[in-house]
C-alpha cells in the first residue's frame, strides 16, 4: 500500500464495517477514524462534541444541498456560515476535518461521506460493506443484547439515516456499486475473510 493511500469504508449497520476498518488499519499500521472524527471536528470547529454527535450522519431538509455546497466551494464567509442551519455547519466541520486527516497520510475513514469529501484524491480506495439482514440481526442482538425485533428496527433506522445523509450530501447513491471501488458481503466472507480480501485488493491497487 502506498504511504498516502486513504481507505474509506461505507457500511450497512450491523455488517461489521467498523471492526473491519479497525483491522485493516492495524494490519497496515495506520490510523482508523470513525467516532474519533467527531472529537477532532469539534475541537477544530469550535462546536461542542455533543452537538457534533447529535448531528452525526443525520440529513437535514431545512436547506438546499446546492446552496450549501456552492457556499463551501466559493469559500464561506463568517456571516454566511453563521446563517447556515446547524446540520450543514456540522457537515462542513466534518468535511474539513476529513480533508485535514487525509493530508496527514494513509488512514482508514469509516462513514461520514468520506469518499465524497476526498473525491479529488487520486490515492483513495472506496469500499462498501454489506450483509444479509439475518446476519446483521444476529450480530446486533449479540452486540447490544436486544431482541431480534429490536435489532431489525435498529438496522432499518440506521440504514435509512445513513442512506439519507449520504444521498443528501453527496452526488452518489449510498450502497450502489457504482459509488465505490469495491463492495463486499461480510456475511459470506466473515469479518476476517473480508479483511483478507480487502488487503489483497488494496495491495493490488497499490502496485498499479
Describe the structure.
Residues 62-81 have low confidence and may be disordered. Helix 1 (17-28) runs parallel beside helix 10 (186-206), helix 2 crosses helix 6 (86-103) and helix 8 (133-144) crosses helix 9. Strands 2-3-1-4-5 form a five-stranded parallel beta sheet, with helices on both faces. It has helices spanning 17-28, 36-45, 49-54, 65-74, 78-83, 86-103, 114-117, 133-144, 148-169, 186-206; strands at residues 6-11, 32-33, 107-110, 124-130, 182-185. The protein starts with 5 loop residues before the first strand and ends with a helix. The protein is 58% helix and 11% strand. The radius of gyration is 17 Å and the shape is globular. The protein is an alpha/beta fold and 208 residues long. The chain has one domain: Rossmann fold, CATH 3.40.50. It contains ten helices and five strands.
Summarize the structure.
The protein is an alpha/beta fold. Helices cover 58% and strands 11% of the residues.
Q: What is the β-strand count?
A: 5
CATH first level: Alpha Beta
Number of domains: 1
How much β-strand is present in the residues? 5-15%
Q: End-to-end distance, in Å?
A: 10 Å
**What is the helical fraction, as a range of percent?**
55-70%
Indicate the low-confidence ranges by residue numbers. Answer: 62-81
Question: Main beta sheet: strand number and arrangement?
Answer: 5 strands, parallel
CATH domain topology? Rossmann fold
- CATH architecture, by name, is 3-Layer(aba) Sandwich
CATH superfamily (homologous) name: P-loop containing nucleotide triphosphate hydrolases
Helix and strand content put the structural class at alpha/beta
Strand order of the largest sheet: 2-3-1-4-5
Shape: globular
* SSE pattern, N- to C-terminal: EHEHHHHHEHEHHEH
Helical region count? Answer: 10
Radius of gyration: 17 Å
Mean pLDDT: 85
Amino acid at each position: 500500500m502506498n504511504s498516502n493511500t486513504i481507505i474509506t469504508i461505507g457500511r450497512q449497520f450491523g455488517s461489521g464495517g467498523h471492526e473491519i476498518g479497525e483491522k485493516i488499519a492495524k494490519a497496515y499500521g495506520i490510523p482508523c477514524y470513525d467516532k474519533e472524527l467527531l472529537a477532532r471536528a469539534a475541537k477544530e470547529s469550535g462546536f461542542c462534541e455533543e452537538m457534533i454527535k447529535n448531528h452525526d450522519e443525520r440529513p437535514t431538509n431545512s436547506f438546499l444541498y446546492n446552496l450549501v455546497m456552492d457556499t463551501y466551494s466559493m469559500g464561506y464567509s463568517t456571516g454566511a456560515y453563521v446563517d447556515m442551519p446547524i446540520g450543514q455547519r456540522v457537515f462542513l466541520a466534518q468535511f474539513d476535518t476529513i480533508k485535514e486527516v487525509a493530508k496527514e497520510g494513509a488512514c482508514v475513514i469509516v462513514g461520514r461521506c468520506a469518499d465524497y469529501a476526498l473525491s479529488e484524491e487520486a490515492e483513495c480506495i472506496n469500499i462498501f460493506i454489506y450483509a444479509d439482514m439475518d446476519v446483521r440481526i444476529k450480530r446486533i442482538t449479540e452486540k447490544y443484547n436486544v431482541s431480534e425485533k429490536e435489532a431489525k428496527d435498529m438496522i432499518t433506522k440506521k440504514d435509512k439515516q445513513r442512506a439519507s445523509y449520504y444521498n443528501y450530501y453527496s452526488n452518489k447513491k449510498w450502497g450502489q456499486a457504482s459509488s465505490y471501488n469495491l463492495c463486499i458481503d461480510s456475511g459470506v466472507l466473515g469479518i476476517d475473510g473480508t479483511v483478507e480480501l480487502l488487503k489483497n485488493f488494496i495491495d493490488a491497487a497499490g502496485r498499479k
